[in-house]
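Hi all, a correction to my earlier message: I attached the wrong file for Centromere protein M. Here's the right sequence:
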Amino acid sequence: MSRLNPFAKLPGLNAASVLLVENEEHFQQSLAEALVKETSVTVNVRLAKSFPLPVENDESRPRIDLVVFIINLTSELSFQSAEASLKYLEPGYFLGKVCFMVSNARSSSVPAERLDAVRRLAASLHCPLLFAEDQTQQGVTNAAERLLTILKVAAGFVPFTTSLCLSNLTRSTLPPDIDQPSFD
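and the right structure:
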């Protein structure tokens, strides 16, 4: 079981690689299809259910510019899988090459504690936290556009902007009262 290293391989010419990690694969495929439609840059999309990645594919795997953990808030297993997978990433990935994307945040069946736990996780790792609507095609397209913006920066296609700088601007922060008990 090896850890994924952001700088172990050379980048592809005019290509960016993103790894979408989702335990339940509900949103992953539609998001991957929307990302591949990008025409200004070649986007290589890799899909995984969790980490660690298989060692036998290590030589053919391109350099991963951005790792996206997709968390379905209606499933506790989705959050636990993302949390357990984090230990298989080298610390260099947390310098602007990891983000979390949350789906089903509007669902009435989502406990507030789970959303708070995801927000705490993203804030503790200084990673962006994106919310996405996976039920409509427009929601998937909007999520893909937001991810492409982050991916282009992480892959080095935006001049004078680094992924660490973008990460500082877009990282998830916690409001001061998140650890306070609710009076609802």
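Sorry for the mix-up. The chain has one domain: 15-170.
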